[in-house]
Predict the 3D structure of the following.
Amino acid sequence: EGHEYHAHAGVYIAFDVWVHTIFHILRWISQGNGELLWTTNAGISGLITVFVTPLITFPMMYWKKKISYEVRKGLHYFFFFFAVAMCFHVPVTAIPNGGFIAPILGTCIVVYTLD
């Protein structure tokens, strides 16, 4: 079912965002580059993403029965912030190592908006 795939993708993204962020922070700090977290597009967009992802995913993962459908659906609109931040996370010139994210999520933004 399509919704089941959507739910599994959400859980994967929620997990991956934290693992990805933790290892970037550990690497940058160990290299003495902790300021990259707030001085680069990757750092700033990553902070935005790591902040909004739990707002989108945690209610569905942990509190689905306690939060109304309307609130959960409303929290899904934070996807716009997630997607826009991710569009700036990696330059398009970085293909194949992540440069694909802006065109793909840009398309998702358009489809999500039209829906």
